[in-house]
Amino acid sequence: MLDTAARLLMSPLLVAQALQVRRTAQSLPEAAGPRFGTHGKGPLLRLGIIGDSSAAGVGVAHQSDALSGQLVEMLATQFEVTWQLDALTGATTRSTITRLANTPTRPLDVIVIALGVNDVTRLVPARVWVRQQATLIQRLRTLHAPAQIYLSGMAPIGHFPLLPGALRWTLGRHAQRLEKQRIAYLETCPDLTHVPFDMPLDPELMASDGFHPAAPLYTLWAKEMASRIISDWPDFSSEK
What we know:
Helices cover 44% and strands 14% of the residues. It is an alpha/beta fold. α1 packs across α6, α3 runs parallel beside α5 (126-144) and α5 crosses α6. The longest helix has 23 residues, at 2-24.
């Protein structure tokens, strides 16, 4: 309630800041390079990555420096990884559900989801967002029957260099609210793993737009994901 009241009081300022960001923000392309393939040797691990512009590698030139490329490279030290990336700039949880409506069924062992920032910037209510996330997860279970789904924690929008003060505070608070309710839901599902975004947002880790990761931050993100996935597959990781 307090956050809602504060938003109402600051609404003229928030609108002005949002328009300013839209006018001045640098628009970076999605990373070039393959979005599917096979890499590595060892037990087979079928990997899917689904998300928004961060999953699509915005902030670096090539997928080899993005989340997908670096995660696959790390997992390939333990597994033969067959992988696919389905990510789109501007994607929300709702738009991703729609995009997956006609996706063919294909078995996957592990799915990584990186979604949420665009839901925050659109101020999707927390309860609505959690229901959308649950719908998306159920759709992925039906399509791919994964053993485990890893949901990347919400990025700390309240620290994004691009955003001016009042807008940064408002979106940061909303992101925390969404994440808190999602974690409560995830804890009820054993096939879901929440991977908190506990990485620093030092300027050298951010892309030139002040909103997306640069290659070093993608590296930290991929390392955390790879560590979680490997530790959850004892039969595979024991063969290191």
